[in-house]
């Protein structure tokens, strides 16, 4: 059930997908409304939360619309539901575990109006301690970046433009720059472009959908760009922590997303090579964990579950998200897709 549509057409529809993060999502909406001068249509899609998310949001923010999905639709499908219900000419995807700094959304809108040629826009995310969180954007996967991952170079030379190219180097996201991937943490696009692109690919359940969307957008002539004046604070994965998801399982989800991007955007032979390099990178890190005696070991879990993630979605969904959990797993994801952690 959703609340009534706004009486007047707003400047921007903001779509937030929520799962069991009542306090975080409420704070996100509170800061969004308090720091934004533009007229907003706020749509929260709740994917079957078991906490008081729906009730709290409706009590504290009666002017927003809350759509109860009744189950865990996955991130891509949840976003599509929210955008379908939106009414503004532009749509902003926003993570629920974010705090909006003063004027951030207005700055994003102003840049989009002044520079309509880009058509896809992201901002700058900070960690709670004020340091840069690079996850607002990433570089695209290439055979070289995956080879670097397979050989462990992305870990040995973290944020190197040569050996860790998907990280985009040590750039602090503090200047205007076109990038390959804008993440769903903070993503602005016109409703017309969204509809023309067909929204998010619902074959993805969690992770990777924004990378695939950005690839389709670039192929259609959109030029994704980072707007440094649009600054938010990203708490990073509130409901992941709430669910107690292990690092190994979470990274297996990330790898499933990566494998799906490769299989949906690369030619078949090249995609197989890319997935092989993902597996090789998992093996390299699992071996290092074994040598160092690390337990339980994120990458040992990822390597042991490679048959579950290497084919990507939708087959990975059943393995990584059993039916009993698909109504109770995380939707407030962190944007780890481009990271290659230790």
From TrEMBL:
Residues 181-225 form the Galactosyltransferase C-terminal domain. GO terms for molecular function: transferase activity. Pfam families: Glyco_transf_7C, Glycos_transf_2. Residues 13-137 form the Glycosyltransferase 2-like domain. InterPro entries: Galactosyl_T_C, Glyco_trans_2-like, Nucleotide-diphossugar_trans. It comes from the Bacteria. Keywords: Transferase. This is Glycosyltransferase family 2 protein.
